[in-house]
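Structure tokens please, single chain.
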Amino acid sequence: LTTLSRRQAGKSGQHLFLSSLRNPQEKTSDVAFALNTLGRLWLSGIQPDWPAFHAGSEPRRLPLPTYPFQRQRFWIDKPATPQTLTAGQSRPGKLSDIGEWFYSPSWTRCPWVSKSADGANNVSGRAWLVFTDGSEFSARLVERIRAQGCDPSVVKLGKHYNKDGDKGFTINPRSPQDYFLLTEDLHRAGTVPRTILHLWCHSPSITDAASAATIDTWQSLGFYSLVYLSQALDKISVTKPIKISVVTSQAQEVLTDDTLIPAKAMVHGPCVVIPQELTNVACQSVDVAAAEVSNWNIQKLDALLADVATESSGNVVAYRGSHRWTRTYSPLPLAPTNAKPTLLRQRGTYLITGGLGGVGLLLAEYLARTVQAKLVLTGRSEVPPRSQWSKWLASPDNDERITEKLKAISALEEMGAEVFVASADVADPQAMRRVIHDTQSRFGKINGFIHAAGIVNGPTDGAILDLDKENCAQIFCPKVEGLLNLASLVQEADLDFCFLTSSLSSVLGGLGFSAYAAANVFMNAFAYTQNQTQSVPWLSVNWDAWLTEQDSDIPLRVTGMSSQESLETFDRILSLGQAGQTVVSISPLEARIEQWVKMDRSRDGALKQESQIFSQTHGDQEKLTAENAAGNQATQI
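Here you go.
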């Protein structure tokens, strides 16, 4: 009946279809399934007859604490295995030496996965779902699965949903409804997959990587495909373990001559976050060289399938030539320096997008103090003409957010800076072209830019089950479209550096951060592509949480960087001058990856605790100041 209801005319994505009885193949008890359905009805706004529900049961008193709920968990979970402290890690938590906060992404060569003696990673004996793109590589993988005694369900790309026999399907990758019809048919047939092999992003891209069409295509085949698939799996209330392995090409930088397509790399966002939000789902990212896989022999194909079938074979894996690699992060010790960073010029001109936000103003302060810079601060909100500033500041009735901005600008000028404020959306080509023209007319040559723009009054995060293209687009706009626009406008300028404020969420994910993590992964990959073709160094820094002087929440003090620490970190990164991706983590990064990304299920409690803190300390960079009047929150890069 549920299936019949879904296919009625007039239904929309806002309709919710729930079944009161489980599928015969579902292992969940009838009572648990019914309670789950009742809970989802209540979440949708339906008010059950609670007196009837509780009839016959005896109510009990539940003691509650008298202090306000802070939504932070501080219970110390017992580790599943004994943990030892490594050298230099005297205690968990924030490292006292700022020089130990820096990391550089790297790759470690490791053995190819072979079939285990106990058969745990055998291809046979499990339900497979394979998303194929019609390539020879995907066809050969399906053939090898079948050769090992398994009959996989195969999904092909098309314009409309279609079922071809018991195990063949065609879906439109842009249609969330098609994914739901797929999982519903699998559920009804008792073939809900245990292993999902996603191959839509492995074919090489031959079009302009920065074109809107290319980005839209790979977002649909990668990022949105995983989002819609996760939502569809949740709607059929699957509770058994599932592993999703996403095979890509041009999404990971392993060798120095690797070519990246930043839009492909965005699939890593949901790959990290899905297991954090859907506890029965594991995800693995596998990057291959598209030019090589067509020549893979049977042994390599079977090894890849064994890798996919292995429960914990590495979250991010790459194959190049005869070698298998896993991604790691190497410490990058940075000592303090008293000298001015070589990337900066005395009285140089620097453009800061998002310059009126919390992070933007802090970085502007550093440039003002260090080199008495000529600063161009852009933001989406309007400020009054400079001739009206004195009158505005004298009135207590004006918008306090704008007042704080004007005071901050005045403070920068007292430090010796010249400040030009421009209202412009970084994703608007005409507006930014006008800003650059006005800057050059006023100050002359631009020496560098800092891209610190972020969304304003929009969703910073959202559970993957609630995401749609509209709220994702708001998150992507400044960090994807805005970055591409800015890069095209300064392409001919002889800059000293380009600095991107990315986020640690691109490494650690975070509850509700799938779209945000993907946007920051794009920034990291884009910086890499620019460094391959330009002499100007592009720096993408994955910042940990920023705090402002207004923050008085002691727990946040332990988990974030103070303003002084943030500027010291910025100074050391500029002094290093290393192009590419730099990761900033105020606590040991590998420990956080073990806890957040590798997702040992015994550490679920710790994940929830750090997720709550991470989401608090990663509010948008413009939330902390007048740009968004959030007040007393920490800043998300």
